[in-house]
Amino acid sequence: MYSAIDNHLDTLVNTKSTPLQELSADWLSQKTVRLFVKRDDLLSFPDAPEFRGNKWRKMKYNLLAAKQEGHHTILTFGGAYSNHIAATAAAGKLFGFRTIGIIRGEETLPLNPTLRRAKENGMRLHYVTRKDYRKKKETDFNRWLHQLFGSFYTVPEGGSNALALRGCQELGTEIRLQVEDKKPLYVTSACGTGGTFAGLITAFDKTTHAIGFPALKGDFMEREIRLFLETYQHSSTASWTINNNFHFGGFAKFQPALITFMQEFYDAFQIPLDPLYTGKMFYGLKELIQDGYFPKGANIVAVHTGGLQGIAGFNRRYGLSLPNKKPL
Ligand SMILES: Cc1ncc(COP(=O)(O)O)c(C=O)c1O
């Protein structure tokens, strides 16, 4: 008999291409550039909005591998507001895995919306000190986890591993097919661990320029991306750069200008952005466009990687009312 899980697996295996939506605005026409949003934020299951966007891309082959290898449990790592933790819990429910989240830091009650939803989706939350959390890649720590939880399939923090890069390469290939005739071509994405961007750029050749916008402060992202490519033996002939100027002070930090921008973007295009990743990327992208960074006639594809699940927690924490879905 065909179960709901089989159905979900079918949908996952045959991931449908997400739309490319062109934006129309004065700040684009004034510079004679075209901006397309790759709507990966629409890539989700109706009942599992947390399993969305780049989480779908990064988890796809991991979930299939876990099934193939006969695992019943997936264990992963993340902070208290992690989109990846939320996505893994939702994926567990969709695809019939038990899930364990190793959470950085102490438990804070009441649980924030991200962890509450993860728990509702069946995830077992296990808190470790920040000091222990830093050991997450060490063999001894891993052995201890196995003693505690038995057998499981491990997905690293942020979901970034070789199979995640493969899923993100598919995203890049989709874009390439959708814009085949459009040159010069620029592709942009937000970066956290860098896994999404690393996979994305492997789908392009030297005729494409990709720009990554880190959500974190520091100048380590380029190194991280090179490391992903080397470690997983991927290569990309695309030219690419990392723009470190739009982190707004660091991860999950923001300034009123970012919030205003996100609200205006939503009013103009009815596309919700998240304040941690896509809001910062689109803000940076608009600045670059207005500064004349792109040549006349440029076609820019900006990937909307999702992340909308985090908006509720962000609103609650800062007393904001950012929209997290399209208007009714
Ligand atoms: C919405 C969103 N966009 C982009 C990223 C960055 O992805 P990566 O960690 O692969 O760089 C994340 C990471 O969690 C995310 O949640």
| Class derived from helix and strand content | alpha/beta
Shape verdict: globular
Question: Strand share of the residues?
Answer: 15-25%
Uncertain parts: none
- What is the CATH architecture term of the largest domain? 3-Layer(aba) Sandwich
CATH topology of the largest domain: Rossmann fold
Radius of gyration: 19 Å
Succession of helices and strands: HEHEEEHEHEHEHHEHEHEHEHHEH
CATH level-1 class of the largest domain? Alpha Beta
The count of domains is 2
With helices defined by DSSP (H or I, 4 residues minimum), what is the helix count? 13
Mean pLDDT: 95
Structural write-up:
With 328 residues, the protein is an alpha/beta fold. Helices cover 41% and strands 18% of the residues. The protein has helices at residues 4-13, 26-29, 54-68, 83-95, 113-120, 130-133, 139-149, 162-178, 195-201, 221-231, 256-269, 278-290, 311-318; strands at residues 20-23, 34-38, 44-45, 48-52, 73-78, 98-104, 123-128, 153-154, 185-191, 208-214, 239-242, 299-303. A six-stranded mixed beta sheet has the order 1-2-12-9-10-11. Helix 3 (54-68) crosses helix 4 (83-95). 44% of the residues are buried. The structure holds pyridoxal-5'-phosphate (PLP). The site of pyridoxal-5'-phosphate has 20 residues, from helix 4, strand 9 and helix 9.
How would you sum up this structure in a few lines?
By secondary structure, the protein is α/β, with parallel strands linked by helices.
